[in-house]
Amino acid sequence: MDINFQLPNKQACLDQLTKLGIDYIAHHHDPVPTMEEVVKIKVEDGTAYVKNLLYVDKKSNYYLILANNATQVGKLFWKTLGLASGNMRLSKEEQIAEALKSSKGNVNPFAVANDTNNLVKNIIIDEELTKYKRLALHPIENTTTVEISLDDLQNKFLKVLNRQFTVLQLTDAAAEQKLEQQKEQQKELQKDQQKDQQNQQTLAITVKKSDFSEWYQQVIRKAELIEYYDVSGCYILRPWAYFIWEQIQRYFDDLIRTEEVENTYFPMFLSAKHLNKEKEHVEGFKAEVAWVTKYGESDLNEPLAIRPTSETIMYPAFAKWVQSHRDLPLKVNQWTNIVRWEFKFPTPFIRTREFLWQEGHTAHSTREEAVKQVYTILDFYEQVYGELLAVPVIKGIKTESEKFAGGDFTTTVETIIPQNGRGLQGATSHHLGQNFSKMFEINFEDDKKQKAFAWQTSWGLTTRSIGAMIMFHGDDKGLVLPPRIAKYQIVIIPIIHKDLDEKQLNERCEQIRQILVKLKLRVHLDSRDNYSPGWKFNKWEQKGVPIRLEIGPGEFKNNEVRVVQRFDNKKYQIKFEELNQLTQILDNIHNAMLDKARTELNQRIKQADNWKEFMSQLNQRNTILTRWCERQECEKEVKTKSGIESKEKDSEIDGQVQLTGSAKTLCMPLKQDQVKEGELCFNCGQQAKKYVLWGRSY
Fold first, then answer.
1. Which contacts of 174-177 are long-range, i.e. CB under 8 A and separated by 24 or more positions?
2. SS3 497
3. 496 FRET partner, CA 20 to 30 A, in 76, 193, 292, 376?
4. By its UniProt entry, which Pfam families does this protein fall under (predicted)?
5. CB 424 within 8 A of CB 697
């Protein structure tokens, strides 16, 4: 029997269970990342819901625990293994990925097949599970639950993989009794809570922003930005998020129209012949290309690729349209979706298998014109991030190994997420040179009647920009929106009181709304009578609305409103006749958000002159600016060495979980000091040529 199989997805897992002769019942459903959602899945009588816990100690020993849903892992259990419970930690996202090639909410025993480095040496099964006929487990992905017997799991799956397991009692009677007491107390407490308080609790983010991965997942769902979908890596953009994308579209469209760029649309399918025409280009995307091979029950004569980018779709048409120098420049842009079947674990907005973007493509008669276009677009991207999203960026040039496949050079706007120090590529503008024009025969007759090839550019901005905005500005309460992209810039909340006529109060609020609408502000009046003001406060804070206006008895009597700013929680009164000040107040909020974000970004950039300083700063979650020789061999060595040394570090220093992984070049900033003769590369000691930013990245 082959014991070297790996299980990259649920279908591979189900196929392997069948191959091993394991009988199972499968239930397909929406993603269920928590046990609270898992137990809602209807299973057969006598089936136990299993929670799978991956623990790691300070020496990076991994323990995979399969526990009955009701079991609490107690101190007695760790003591039985000769371990101190204080030294054990639930594994972080990076550790789950390293050990099982899985992610939070997807830990399962089948994933040990992916543990090619044999990191998980301890598989412990809760003794309680032996009392059940079957176990409910996820086959790699949490969009499916299978019911299988414990005997099949032990003797047909784990045994085939030569994996040892131990059946142990995970808790003691005293702990169970205490747990039951706590449950009874909780039931009583829930009976006493009012409906409004329960709703507020449902709204609240349950973790601090310091627990960044979990915080982000909660924010995007509770702020109603994202809904999960049953195809891994694909997500539903809810109206609250799509409005932000529409604002980005409008703003960027206005910018590129000043450059006489026209919007267009090209098909999403391309033939293998066209995709493979530019060898270096296709190699850069080959692993991510999704293919259509069937229609109905029939096979296509030729498989069709779904666009990972559109150079090879557009350029055959460019060759038809460009005949003379009078046909240039040719400038088009399209707003569309892209599919790249990423193998890394998807993160909504940041790394997804399908995403929305704009991609611009231009052709010019001279290199100078094309290069100028590249940098003009780069400036536009900086404006999108700064003027709309209040996110600071660093303009730079990618190194040769990081540039766009098949291009001449790539410019980029990069940012750094303050919470974890990871770099995030915001948008790129590429100079393609004549590489593609020669390949696709985009040539023209110049003004001297000579045949010449066009000089080309391409550039793109994606919905990743929304993810950057969320990560920068959100706080422990949830989303914080910059005013210029918020669907509602202001929400008005009437505070009903026994001493105030409700009809008159609502009329006053509507009057205020109409005044603000005439000021061209986006305003919502929340006059629902089935929710309390406190619930509404929490709801709109959670969704990040920049300003809340409260009108209660005092405000009604004094012809004023109470202003509450979401960004800094600043509260103050303004008179009815001063409502026009809110336009300037919103601009001030935007500027303050950008200033704060710029300060936080700059605090994450450190300089290093040698390897020791470099690794010290990297392991403090910083991005590092160094002098560099520009040699690709040196760049590759830094990436390899930093990855090895990171794995050797403690995963926790001073109570803070450390990031692991290789450092890579983010960009060579456009604004930088000139490297002097005798100044050396921080890594190899050769003459330095440029300053470059290094960091871990998304």
1. 175/72, 175/74, 175/76, 176/72
2. coil
3. 193
4. HGTP_anticodon (PF03129), ProRS-C_1 (PF09180), tRNA-synt_2b (PF00587), tRNA_edit (PF04073)
5. yes
CA distance 57 to 246: 47
Taking the C-alpha atoms of residue 211 and residue 630, their distance in angstroms, rounded to an integer, is 37
324 bridge partner residues: 445
Q: What is the 3-state secondary structure (H, E, C) of 409-475?
A: EEEEEEEECCCCCCEEEEEEEEEEECHHHHHHCCEEECCCCCEEECEEEEEEEECHHHHHHHHHHCE
Q: Which residues of the chain have pLDDT under 50?
A: 1-2, 189, 192-196, 198-200, 650-657
> What is this structure's pTM?
0.72
How far, in Å, CA of 345 to CA of 97, rounded?
A: 8
Distance CA 453, CA 455 (A): 7
Question: What residue has token string 């001297």?
Answer: 448
Q: How far is it, in rounded angstroms, from Cα 77 to Cα 171?
A: 6
**pLDDT number for residue 593:** 98
Task: For the chain, give the number of residues.
Answer: 698
Q: Record the tokens describing residue 372, joined without a space.
A: 């100028």
pLDDT at 652: 46
Looking at residue 177, its pLDDT comes to: 57
Judge whether 138 and 34 are in contact, CB under 8 Å. Answer: no
CA pair distance 541, 388, nearest whole angstrom = 20
- Give the largest Cα separation in the chain, rounded: 93
- 610 phi and psi, to 5 degrees? -150, 175
How far is 506 from 524, CA to CA, in rounded Å?
A: 13
Angstrom distance (rounded) from CA 688 to CA 693: 14
pLDDT given for residue 326 in this prediction: 95
Quote the tokens at residue 558: 């004094």
For 529, other C-beta atoms within 10 Å of its C-beta total 9
User: Each residue of 151-198: pLDDT tens digit?
Assistant: 999 999 998 888 888 888 876 555 555 555 566 656 654 554 444 454
80: three-class secondary structure by DSSP: helix
DSSP 682: T
Cα atoms in the Cβ-side hemisphere of radius 13 Å centred on 502:
6
| Interatomic CA distance for residues 65 and 56, integer angstroms | 11
46-84 residues labelled b (16+ CB within 10 A) or e (exposed): ebbbbbbbbbbbeeeebbbbbbbebbebbeebbeeeebe
Closest Cα partner for 358 from 428, 290, 301?
A: 428
For residue 660, what pLDDT is reported? 63
User: From CA 58, how far away is CA 61, in angstroms rounded?
Assistant: 7
Q: Are strands 523-525 and 490-494 parallel, antiparallel or unpaired?
A: parallel
Nearest to 697 by CA among 671, 647, 651, 661: 661
